[in-house]
Write a structure and sequence with these properties.
This protein is mostly helical and 110 residues long. 85% of the residues lie in helices and 5% in strands. The protein has a two-stranded antiparallel sheet.
């Protein structure tokens, strides 16, 4: 068990792992903030303002368009995340290689 924790510490210290974490943070944090602000916009605007009461086409109000836009936003974020995650796979492979070479060097020393 201790060996596993030691191995994980070595992986976390590699430059490729630090690069991976930085790239993930650059995408995930703004995307999460945008998602929650957009998602919570509907109940806040519908509950506390009359902005969404505007009739756009016939009986279709701005509230319905906003609600449908949430589906579009969610699918768009999903596709953006999958696209980024595919690019991160290359970095993950670099992390594995660096960790394996570091572990190999440590075994040769020991």
């Amino acid at each position: 068990m201790e060996e596993r924790g030691e191995y994980w510490s070595r992986v976390a210290q590699t430059s490729a792992f630090q690069d991976l974490m930085q790239k993930k943070k650059v995408f995930i944090i703004p995307a999460t903030i945008f998602f929650f602000v957009f998602y919570m916009g509907l109940p806040v605007l519908a509950g506390f303002t009359t902005v969404l009461n505007v009739q756009v086409i016939g009986a279709l109000s701005l509230a319905w368009i906003y609600a449908l836009a949430q589906f579009v936003m969610t699918w768009t974020l999903l596709h953006l995340y999958v696209s980024r995650a595919n690019k991160w796979d290359e970095v993950v492979e670099r992390v594995r290689e660096e960790a394996a070479s570091d572990l190999g060097e440590k075994r040769e020393e020991g």
